[in-house]
Amino acid sequence: MSRSKFLGSMFVVVATCAFAASAFAKAAPVKCPFNGNYSFFFWDPDVNLSGVGYIGVQSNSATKCRAGIVLPGGIINCNFSDDTEYEDFIEGGNIFLESDGEGTMLIETNSTDGICGTGKDAIELDISLVNGGKSVLFNSDGEEFASSGLIPQAGYNYTLTGRADKCFAGQISGCYDLRFFTPDDSVVGDCTVCVNGAGAVTGGDCKCNTNGIEGDQGFEYDSEIETGGYTLGEDCQSSTGYMWFETSSDLICGVESGVAIDFAVAQQGQEILAACDPNEYILNNTSVANAGFYDACSVEGWLQ
User: Fold this and answer.
1) Of 127, 145, 166, at which residue does a domain stop?
2) Where does 39-142 have alpha helices with state H?
């Protein structure tokens, strides 16, 4: 065999093998954007109600990521300003998404009082994926029953709205800018809260603007944070986190010198999502009154 014919035969063999290898190669798995654990916070614009929690979602790549399930183990904490708090553990549910990222999520729980004390163990949310699936905007569906038409759902009782972000299971450190507001629009403001990564609040300040509180319309308060502390739950159960701090100068929103929040951490520690804890005193004792007892505030903030 001539040298040219030999080289030609080898080229055919190599090309055939390369084609065969590419033909039988496995396609890369589809990575669904709505997947993993999310921290969230929510409020009802109509009543003094706010809350915080976390949820796990597993999308199905075989459906082009348009369907999936809600994993058991999440938590919904629902706080009212009358010292009432409800905690529900998520047991399951499902999600469905349109191609544009809009969709629905059904969350199922199991508790004596039901979600936010409604006696109903399910809630259906209208959801929208943003920021490549890192964040989810949601509000409760107002139908009496969930999509199956058989399950009573808490969204029929409350018009909840909120946001969920990829949760963070690590430790936090640094100063966070937190904005807060109450569902009845009587109080808005922002705090700078500094934490040291070891469970202590080391400083900061809070500015609060009031409107609708008798005698204080249009008044601004400026409070200096003196001391405080926080605890975090394990892994992504940071919705069980609890933060408190005491201030000098003005009372917080003209109400009390201390405040406590139930909070979650998201986006690799860059964000804090929270709701005012409804206990009358911080740390459940009788030494420092809690301004969160008067208003069910919602809080979101970012690391400076």
Assistant:
1) 166
2) none
Helices (H), the chain: 3-24
Is position 236 within any domain? yes
- What distance in Å separates the CA atoms of residue 249 and residue 131, rounded to the nearest whole number? 40
Phi, psi of 6 (to 5 degrees): -65, -45
Sign of the dihedral through C-alpha 148, 51, 214, 206: negative
Burial of 216 (0-12, 13-18, 19+ CB in 10 A): middle
DSSP notation for 229-272: EEE--STT-GGGEEEEEEEEES-BTTTBSEEEEEEEEETTTTEE
pTM recorded for the entire structure: 0.84
What is the enclosing helix (H) or strand (E) of 201?
strand 200-210
Beta bridge partners of 132: none
| Residues contacting residue 153 through CB under 8 Å, at least 6 positions apart | 106, 120, 122, 123, 124, 141, 143, 144, 145, 146
| String of DSSP letters for 54-69 | EEEEEE-GGGTTSEEE
Q: What is the extent of the structural domain holding 76? A: 36-166
- CATH code (residue 65): 2.40.128.120
197, two tokens: 């990564």
Question: Bridge-partner residues for 37, per DSSP?
Answer: 56
Query: CA of 46: how far to CAs of 59, 153, 256, 296, in Å?
Result: 33, 18, 24, 12
Residues β-bridged to residue 244: 229, 260
Q: How high is the mean pLDDT in each 10-residue block of the chain (304 residues)?
A: 52 48 59 93 92 95 95 93 89 94 95 94 96 94 87 96 93 96 86 95 94 65 95 77 93 93 93 93 84 91 96
